[in-house]
TrEMBL record:
<keyword id="KW-1003">Cell membrane</keyword>
<feature type="transmembrane region" description="Helical">
    <location>
        <begin position="165"/>
        <end position="184"/>
    </location>
</feature>
<keyword id="KW-1133">Transmembrane helix</keyword>
<protein>
    <submittedName>
        <fullName>Branched-chain amino acid permease</fullName>
    </submittedName>
</protein>
<dbReference type="GO" id="GO:1903785">
    <property type="term" value="P:L-valine transmembrane transport"/>
</dbReference>
<feature type="transmembrane region" description="Helical">
    <location>
        <begin position="16"/>
        <end position="35"/>
    </location>
</feature>
<dbReference type="GO" id="GO:0005886">
    <property type="term" value="C:plasma membrane"/>
</dbReference>
<keyword id="KW-0812">Transmembrane</keyword>
<feature type="transmembrane region" description="Helical">
    <location>
        <begin position="71"/>
        <end position="90"/>
    </location>
</feature>
<keyword id="KW-0813">Transport</keyword>
<dbReference type="Pfam" id="PF03591">
    <property type="entry name" value="AzlC"/>
</dbReference>
<keyword id="KW-0472">Membrane</keyword>
<dbReference type="InterPro" id="IPR011606">
    <property type="entry name" value="Brnchd-chn_aa_trnsp_permease"/>
</dbReference>
<comment type="similarity">
    <text>Belongs to the AzlC family.</text>
</comment>
<feature type="transmembrane region" description="Helical">
    <location>
        <begin position="131"/>
        <end position="158"/>
    </location>
</feature>
Amino acid sequence: MRRLAIPQEFFGGVRAMAPLTVAVMPIGLVFGAVAAGKGLSSLEATLMSVLVFAGGSQFVAMDIWTHPASWGALAFSALLVNIRHVLMSASIGNKMPAFSGPAKYAAMLLLADEIWAMAEVRAGQTRLTPAWYAGLAVPFYCVWVLASLAGSAAGAFLGDPKATGLDFAFPAVFTVLVMGFWKGRDTGAVLAASATAAVLAHQFLPGVWYIAAGAAAGVAATLFTSRRQEACA
């Protein structure tokens, strides 16, 4: 019975993730096109998606890409963008008692914002299993890599993503994720704090510090609202 349950759980994860898997396609196409515009070959752009698998940091890397590349600046920018993964992995890691050690490490390597959000929702409803998580992560990862390859190959034909509206795909996906976590006024306060800090940092600090500032403000606001709820309880 257990062997029969594993495929069912896997395809359950695939079905749950399907809308976001479809939504990541234009984002991957845009990344591939941007990478091609920066002079990267299709192989280089695809390898970046295979090895990095972090859309935000990949787009930031393309934004500051130069020839020759400043590897220190690229690495530091990627660290700032992805520092939130420390909090995300700590959060979801506590909800993986069914995962062996190697399975948990593999799950963290395939962690992305969309995958984390769906896994958190699942863990809040029922037991999170490796098969269901694999159904989330593996197709999503494959589609991201293949879309990056297609976007890079078609970069010359796609042209400026802003002209076709494809550049809006990235913020649209995150808007959907935020609405899935909406819990009323407290969620609004967290979003407002994060947005305010990010905008101010973007105006007054160089580079991508606005990402770290927004994340830090969001965490601080979450802690404040949680403690206020505990005090009122």
